[in-house]
Amino acid sequence: MSLNTPVVNRKKVSLEGTKKKVITGFWGSPDSNNILNFSGPADYFETKNKNEFYKWLDSVPNTNKETFVLIPFSDKVEPYIGFVPENILDTKAQKLIPKSLRKTTPKCLSRLETQNREDWIKHVNDVKHLIFEGKVSKVVLARKISLILDGNLELMSLFSSFLKSDSYKIGLENDDLSFLTVSPELLFKKKGDVIQSHAIAGTRSRGKNTSADLSFERDLKGSKKECEEHKFVLDAVSSSLNQICNTVSLENSFEILKQAKVQHLKSTLEGQLNADQPLSKIISSLFPTPAVAGMPKEKSLALIDDLEKEDRGYYSGLVGRICGSSSEFVVNIRTAFLKKNIIELWSGAGIVADSNGNEEWNELEQKVQHYLDLFI
Q: Residue 9: pLDDT band by 50, 70, 90 thresholds?
């Protein structure tokens, strides 16, 4: 299901509570060779109040304006953001990047981690103990690493390294924030009353050749642990869709999704929405999924808050695009946050009963390897 919407200049927006702010950014979908891009004034809305933001969000489709939103995983630190660029262009990706910036990346001087391998393994074992006690079924733990570079990193320079990626390619830059996400994970895509959602969970690395790659693929499909982790997510997404849809169908199940450095299990669901479902209800029903939080949701979120040493902010939150009755929301993973000469990389792993702490640590590395290879 493609999301095709017109791209035109914006003159005046009738959304309440906005202010003018200069925003630079882009949005590239896996099913398009072009990139929506914008750089200039935008009508900008920001709040740390979820209810206030959702009220604003539900007014967006009525304006029929191309609107972008950023939703944090946790609103303890970062605000909810929505903005409507005055001008949006639809451009070939290669033309966005000045030749002087293409693949000109600084080198890493040092690497800092929020936790070491030993602490990580202890946390994995703590979660497994709670699973065996029946208190949770799955918890997704995340880790942040920071790379100190020998020079400042430009967003468009980093983007130039991922032009051929078949994931979503989304970037945003203003005075307070700069990030690139190369995310494979669609939370939902809505066109009229039809909604599509992906369940992505279960991971193996890519092989160095075709034979090795197929071996990893067979291992992924045959892994009890990885299939169990995927089924948690698939069942939860299906259950959430059934709360807001009158029909839900499983289009594809346990397919292999190939990425540059890793491969995942992927299932696709499609539903017919009940009448008059606002975006706020759709998001609240589906987010956060067990792919970024766990099950049960509230207990998993409490454990994440207790075990992770730093607030996730926008990592594993949502980036969304809305135009009229069409919308598309992507889970903000495989994301690099840029702060002058520092790049922050997050990755997470789903902990279930059969998880192994060392293997989960290796998975964290695999999920950011496409960034690490650029600097180390």
A: very low
